Amino acid sequence: MKPKNNTGLLRLVYNPTARSIFYQVVIVGLLLWFVLNIVGNVMTNLDQRGISTGFRFLSQPAGFGISQSLIEYDETFTFGRTFFVGLLNTLLISALGIITATILGVFVGISRLSPNWLLRKLSMVYIEILRNIPLLLQIFFWYYVVLQAMPRPRDSISIGEAIFINVRGISMPKPVADSGFGIYVALIVAAIIGVIVLARWANKRMMDTGQQFPTFWASVGILLGTVIIGFFLTGRPLVLDYPELRGLNFRGGMTLLPELLALWFALTIYTSTYIAEIVRSGIESVSHGQTEACRALGLNEGQRLKLVILPQAMRVMIPPMTSQYLNLAKNSSLATAIGYPDLVSVFAGTTLNQTGQAIEIISMTMLVYLTISLSVSAFMNWFNRRMALVER
Amino acid sequence: MTEFTPKPARPAPLSEVGLLGWMRKNLFSNISNSIVTLLGLYIVWQVLSWAISWGLLNADFVGNHRSDCDSGGACWVFISVRWNLFMYGFYPQDSYWRPNLAFILLIGFLIWLSVPRIPFKKVGAILSLTVFPVAAYILLYGGMGLDVVPTHRWGGLMLTLVLALVGIVAAIPIGILLALGRRSTNMPAVRLVCVIFIEFWRGVPLITILFMASVMLPLFFAGGTDADKLMRAMIGIIMFQSAYMAEVVRGGLQALGKGQYEGADALGLSYWQKTNLIILPQALKIMIPGIVNTLISLYKDTSLILIIGLLDVLGMVRQALADPAWLGYPAEGYIFAAFMFWIFCFSMSRYSAYLERRLNTGHKR
Amino acid sequence: MKKIATLIGAAAVLTASAGVSANTLETVKNRGAVQCGVSDGLAGFSATDSAGRWQGLDADFCRTVAAAVLGDAEKVNFVSLTATERFTALQSGEIDVLPRNTTWTLTRDASLGLNFTGVNYYDGQGFLVSKDLGVSSAKELDGASVCISSGTTTELNLADYFRMNGMSYEPVLYDTSDQTISGFEAGRCDILTSDQSQLYSLRIGMSDPDSAEVLPEVISKEPLGPVVRQGDDQWFNIVKWALFAQVNAEELGVTSANVDEMKGSNDPNVQRLLGTSGNMGELLGLDNEWAYNIVKQVGNYGEVFERTVGTGSPLQIARGLNALWTDGGLQYAPPIR
Question: CATH fold of C125-220, please?
Fold first, then answer.
């Protein structure tokens, strides 16, 4: 049916381009109005209530202590410094969590496909129970039920008089560099380079002649040998600083705080259930013909996984895996619930409270997480495009 | 010549059939497998025997004081004396029938909508999206002759369910709109807005969003606001999850063949006809696992509201744990809260698996 | 498409943003209730009893404001806040007044956009230690783990004190005082530091209160008082004078029991307080019976103190610094005239 009046304005109304431009102008206009309105309101509200604004507070002394810091920090440092202390703690827990969650997740994911019925079922139960319980609850469980039930420092569980486990965490010896440490490090670096060269040579030889070389065991041998023999050759450049119960607490050595441990365990276990499912579906996505072909070629189980299945599964697994890693980093902000000094707890918690500048501090915090996740996504997109080229 | 009579096939050797054969094949196929099996059995035995003796055999179930917990196992009395608080928070006692009734209504609608054999699905859907929310609001909050129960008295499982349901109902449509906007080809401005919106909410932790919603939102509006704390938290959760939902929907839309779009265009369907009649019905089917996963994480994420001082079921448990009269039962408390979350998440994931099988029409891509 | 999403969000937020807080008094009257920020559970100051009713010195101050402004002490919406949330909640207008054992300091007064209206409790920071530690002075605490509520002045004083005495410590932060005391009981830290009043209140909440003791050292001045937003002088005056009215009532001997007879008193001070002469209420923008309502429904300062933290309560805190100036304490209110 034709519109009755096919001229002028009406024609414009039925023109899809005109309509889409009209809609866009309206939406963008509304949005701009909305944002400007908010900015205006914030300005007037801040002004009216005499709340200080700006980032001058960053250079003022903080005046409070933080229980764990990777960089030098005490009460006399500035609020700006607390930002970096928190940020580094966030990165630390994220890195620890990613490493252990990956190891555990891959293990459970492969078990999920094991020929052993019991192992298959056990890993399924593990996944189904732990991924359906909120992470926050798991953190509380580890912190309040498990770690707070540990003995007091005086009655610590001691492992060989070197590692002490108590309600205040795990105290263990800390290696401290002594003279000759530089040479020792140089030796180890040399060994690592040697192993890489060896691996390349072995690979090339295998490609050329088909002969295999036990690269893995050779590398382990070289590395371990260098680490152990080099240690004595360079005159024991590392000394261990043992923790010792002096006064109220363990002094010396290094201590993993219970807050860190609880968060680490919970993040590891929770994320590993997701990673396990990703690994499982990744492996299942490789067609069965590949497995049969491997068997026909006489590859054993380990070789099949390592050389054929995993490289192909990897392509499917990497994107969801990355988003799990990002989730883990974001989830580490739950640290604030048990007082692990991460970015949210230190900066958006204590610092915010001492300065009262909510807008600046929350924006900075959000910006950090946004930067992390956007840059990782950008990297992933690039990586995906590269991987996609391999596709046949 | 004798006629050829085939001998009956010999039965398979005993070691290959029946329970024995099954065990041999699945549990003890080689040495390493046998070791794993034995180790697994040992772990299962240890865990189960401890759990049963602590949680059931040596546990205390009846009583009303901590002195009733003397048998050394779990003290479920701790849960039972506070059952009402865990379920309803500080909701007035004489009005418990209101959340109960709302819950029964909810179950009724859910059964109506989720069991395939019950007819009149369309009526059910319309009623559950129009009548039910209004009825539930009036029942829970008040009005129409019922006393108003301010939201700061809501708590426990009831609050968890309210947050999750409202979140689910709001996040799905917003997510679909965002995804459509992000895929829109002839409206670049809209696409840009949607991309920014989605990436922003996905990029920051929920807890900073909740913090913003709980204490900063009022600064954004002229002269502050009286908006309810619960509502602000709800808006935060909805925004966060709708961004995730949008990505799930986008995945589903992308998985659909281009021919479907072209076919719809060739038939001369308008944009919304094409979307509603051709694209979404097919895409939603592909998206079910993703959508349910998002819903499950929404449900789990509601637990974060305790950080901004709203007391959901986990929050109530933590409050109970601080009661000096009942110190020392964190395990019971947290296990109970975990069960409350687990049972809902697990049923959701089972239902989604069932739905996936049912809707699988064979031409899965 | 996107438009609808935006509209839903905007509408949800905007419809809720009715009410203008530039004039807090107006807002409160329209709402018919005072939004009052209290702590999330600190016996004696603000905590819910088993019936879910808020009790305590700070909670009663919320009622005092409600009685003065709305004539009904029960018209209060209690908003429980953690130490970290409290200032933002006040700045942003979520609450009208914040009596949440908050210490009056220069920074808070000058840069947070807040005004302290007075002091309803003079306090000082102390230490709670468990007895089997065998410590008798805070000077012996080198290397200790210390449990603190995060975002308090306590955190800053603690840092100053340990640094001044050349001692090291490990801070263990908790969000709420419940968590702080449970961490202390579990042995996560050796000492718990907080305002002395809180230490007593936390101690009676322990499963074995006799296992811990409060050290004699007081390391800081902690004047605790109700806070309001800057930029609304009328509301500032109302909250300030609500507290002064209570103190004046105690000084003049007006109690909730005798307030009705006192209305017939011929003491001009009492008459002005109770609104039988003069127009004190009107000057504040309130009903002339404002102070009468406070005393009648909540009580004078002394009554509230004894009921919530003093002899009538499990805390048994002596008046000490919080006695009237006439009894050698610091509570001194400007005259109502």
Answer: D-Maltodextrin-Binding Protein; domain 2 (3.40.190)
Looking from the CA of A188 toward its CB, the CA atoms found within 13 Å total: 11
Question: A-chain residues within 8 Å CB-CB of C188?
Answer: 148, 167-168, 258
Buried/exposed A61-90: b ≥16 CB within 10 Å, e otherwise: ebbbbbbbbeeebebebebebbbbbbbbbb
Beta-strand ranges (E) seen in chain A are 157-159, 163-166, 169-172, 174-177, 238-241, 244-246, 249-251, 254-256
Helical (H) or strand (E) element with A324: helix A310-331
The chain B residues in contact with chain C (CB within 8 A) are 90, 150, 152-153, 170, 174, 177-178, 180-181, 184, 190, 193-194, 197, 214-219, 221-229, 231, 235, 239, 242, 307-309, 318-319, 321-322, 324, 327-328
B336 vs B314: CA distance, rounded Å: 9
Within-domain flag for A338:
yes
Are the beta carbons of B312 and B302 closer than 8 angstroms? yes
A218 to chain B, minimum CA–CA distance in Å?
25
CATH code linked to domain C21-122+224-327: 3.40.190.10
Which residues form the domain of A100? Answer: 79-133+256-390
User: Which residue type occupies A198?
Assistant: L
Q: Identify which of C2, C78, C81 has the shortest CB distance to residue B181.
A: C2
Are the beta carbons of A229 and A309 closer than 8 angstroms?
A: no
Cβ distance C113 to A246 less than 8 Å, yes or no, reads no
> Do A119 and B205 count as a contact with CB atoms less than 8 A apart?
no
Whether A362 sits inside 8 A of B208 (CB atoms) is yes
Give the residue on C whose Cα is nearest the Cα of A155. C187
Instruction: Concatenate the DSSP letters of all residues of A142-153 into one string.
Output: IIIIIGGGSPPG
A362–B contact, CB cutoff 8 A: yes
Dihedral through CA A82, CA A83, CA A87, CA A90, nearest 10?
60
| Entry pTM | 0.84
Token pair for A340: 């692990």
Q: Which residue of C has its CA nearest to B272?
A: C1
Q: Which of C2, C27, C82 sits opposite B193 (nearest CB)?
A: C2
Whether residue A75 lies within 8 A of chain C, CB to CB, comes out as: yes
Residues of C with CB under 8 A from a CB of B: 1-2, 4-5, 8-9, 12-14, 16-22, 27, 31, 35, 40-41, 48, 52, 77-82, 85, 88-89, 91-94, 175, 178-179, 182, 185, 204-207
Burial class (CB in 10 A: 0-12, 13-18, 19+), A262: buried
In this structure, which amino acid lies at residue A72? Answer: E
What ipTM does this complex have? Answer: 0.87
In the chain, the amino acid numbered C220 is S
C4-C5-C9-C10 Cα dihedral, nearest 10 degrees: -40
Where do the domains of chain C lie?
Answer: 21-122+224-327, 125-220
Taking only the tens of pLDDT, chain C with its 337 residues reads: 444 444 444 444 443 333 334 688 998 998 889 999 988 777 788 887 766 788 889 999 999 999 999 999 999 988 888 777 788 788 877 789 999 888 898 888 888 888 999 999 999 999 999 888 888 888 888 888 899 887 678 888 898 899 888 888 888 888 777 788 888 888 888 899 998 888 888 888 787 888 888 888 888 888 999 999 888 899 999 999 999 999 999 999 999 999 999 988 889 999 999 988 888 899 999 999 999 999 999 999 999 999 988 888 888 888 888 999 999 999 999 999 8
Judge if C21-122+224-327 and C125-220 fold alike in CATH terms. yes
How many other C-beta atoms lie within 10 A of the C-beta of residue C60?
A: 27
Which residue(s) pair with C213 in the sheet? C129
The rounded distance, in Å, linking the Cα atoms of C38 and C56 is: 10
